[in-house]
Each structure stands twice: as structure tokens, then as C-alpha cells.
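User: These chains co-purify. Model them together.
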Amino acid sequence: MSDTKGIAEDLQGRVYSNAPVYSVSREKIREFARAVKAQSAAHHDVAAARELGYADVVAPPTFAIIVSQAADAELIQDPTAGIDFSRVVHADQRFTHHRPIVAGDELSATVHVDSVRTMGGGAMVTTREEIVDQEGNPVTTALSSLLVRGEE
Amino acid sequence: MQTPNAASVEKGQSVGRREIQVSRADLVAYAGASGDFNPIHWNERFARAVGLPGVIAHGMFTMGTAVQLVTDWVGDPGRILDYQTRFTKPVPVPDAQADASPASGGTTITVEGKIGAVDEEKGTARVDLTVSAPDEDGKEQKVLVKAQALVRL
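Assistant: Joint model of the two components:
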């Protein structure tokens, strides 16, 4: 156990699926788009989004991080997982969009702990968040690697 | 806006370059929008206490702003099918100088994109982004590595 700094030995393979449903609003899409300086009219203007064939304003490509990180909270806060969040560094991130996220979506995310690897004095925890809509159809698959630094 | 056509897009072709100004105020706005309130992104004392050069940008802020070059090139954010990166270096965001507005100052992230691959059959192209920003000594560093967006043309 000393090599993964308190991280549960059976963490790999765990699944967390109790995050509340995330309701995607027009205003949150607009707020997030402004925050990442995204000026495409499809993020802000319903008519422009509909002209492109979407039901409503379209989320920027990294918007899913909100849903993904909210779901990760269950893992981070699970005392039996043993992840010290103050030692976590975001190492890499990927989003695969099965379809764009639009306002009106009701999204549910399930977190899968795909791998836990020892890295020097710490550990690299790779999670996969599968985000689905209200019909259960896949929307986005997010992959995140978190480096949990070891004690100095 | 005209969507680029798979037949006319070539590997190695530039999709442009842009500079993104980042102030402390931008990080506060991103914290609120994303829900990521880690104090290393807004509190100098806390950031230094954990060994950082000062307040740094959220990696997701850098990833999120960098892709706008691709969105604007392809003309439709829904055409970005896949987007990934590794976070290699922090982006320090200095406070505004002396009595200047807290919304001023900060740093500049530079983004350049070029076509890394084209799949004419699938009608997709991969855009490779080079993203850099100055470190605490002012030396330009690559802050994202393997930043790639797959777009449907």
C-alpha cells in the first residue's frame, strides 16, 4: 500500500453512478461559452443553433467537464477510495462526443475507474465518465487521468 | 460560415493562430462557470503554499479556450467529435500591476493549429494544436501536449 499512498487496492474497476441528473440550461451553456471565450453564435443564439440543425443552443466541446467532474465528486469524496484531493493534479483529459450536448438535455454520468498505476511516489488514476441522456442514449465519453502526488 | 471540405483540406495546412488574453478575472469567471473552485486558481497565498509559482489557470480553461480556433475554423461546434490533451506545464496568471484594474494584467496563451490527418472516406480531419504560454520567468513553454481535435467536415 505504501506505493499508492493510501489509495484503495481494489479501486480499479469500481463504478460510481449516484450523481444527480444534470439539467443543461441555455444560460449555463452561454455562461460557460463566455468563460472559455467561445463566440460561435451556436452557443448563444437559439435561432443560429437551429439553423445548424440543433434543437437548441450547443455546448462548447469541453462543457461536459461540468457533468464529468460533478460525477467524479462521488469517487473523490468516497473515504474508502483513499484519494487525497489536495494532492491531485489533472494530467490529461479527453472527450468523445457521440452527439453534441444541447440545452434541454438531462444528463446522467457513470464513473468507471479504468486503471490505477503507480507513478514514482504517487499514482495515476484514470477514470471514464459515460454520459447519457434521458433516453439512456450515449452523449459523451470523458476520460480523465488524475495524478495523485506522493508525500514529499 | 462555410464548413471546410474534406477533399480540399490537406495535411500540414494551417487552421490559424490566435492569442488569448487571460486575467485573474477570467479565472474567477471560469471557476464559476465550471464549478471548479480549487483555490490554486484564485488565491496567491494558497497557490504558493502548495509549491506553485502563484495562481495558475485551470488546465480545463486552457483546453476549453484553445479549441475555439478549431470551432471557428469548422464553423459549427457540434462538428468537434473528439478532443483530447495532456496538461504538461502550469500557466501562471499574474495579478494586475499596482493600482491597475484587477481585470487587467495576466498572461497570453498562444494557440496554433494545423491539420494532422485527413480521412476523406469518413469525412473527418484531425487538427493538432500547439498551445504555449510564458512560465514564471517569462520563458514560453508548451502547456498542452498532444492537443488534438477530430472534426467532421
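Chain B has a mean pLDDT of 94.
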